[in-house]
Amino acid sequence: MTETVADCLFCRIVAGQIPATVVAETEHSLAFRDIDGQAPTHVLVVPRRHVPDAVSLATASARELADVVTLAARVAAEEGLEGYRLVANTGAAAQQSVFHAHLHVLGGRELTWPPG
After folding, report:
1. Any idea which GO molecular function terms this record carries (predicted)?
2. Do the domain assignments include residue 38?
3. 5 Cβ neighbours under 8 A, 6+ residues apart
4. Is 70 exceeded by the pLDDT of residue 116?
């Protein structure tokens, strides 16, 4: 099932209306490079379906959430990352700026803790 929102940046990227550097995809998910990368590898993995955050995606379809996470792992492997971080910001207070579920795949350097 593909639900989109006309003014959603990630829906427009999924639809091919806005260019992105796509690194991998599946039937349910798309992975592309973040234009403002915070690590040497910074890839966003989004479901093709529009839902506002990861919890909403899990509620809508555990299978599609699993697909996003599995694609993120595939991207990390293809990028040769020995370790990586998956981040899902949820809500404006957590700095989510695009309200379409997505995971950040971050790696390629030592990642400190706490993240900030």
Report:
1. catalytic activity
2. yes
3. 11, 50, 100
4. no
Give 21-77 pLDDT, tens digit per residue.
999 999 999 999 999 999 999 999 999 999 999 999 999 999 999 999 999 999 999
- Residues ≥6 apart with Cβ < 8 Å to 102: 10, 44, 45, 46, 54, 68, 88
Angle at 27 between CA 25 and CA 28, to 5 degrees: 90
Does residue 112 fall inside a structural domain?
A: no
Print the domain residue range for 79: 9-107
CA 53/CA 16 separation, integer angstroms: 21
Cα R_g (the chain), whole angstroms: 13
Cβ neighbour number for residue 82 with a 10 Å cutoff: 7
Is 102 one of the catalytic residues? yes
Catalytic residue among 50, 100, 102, 104: 102
Residue 99: give its domain's CATH number.
3.30.428.10
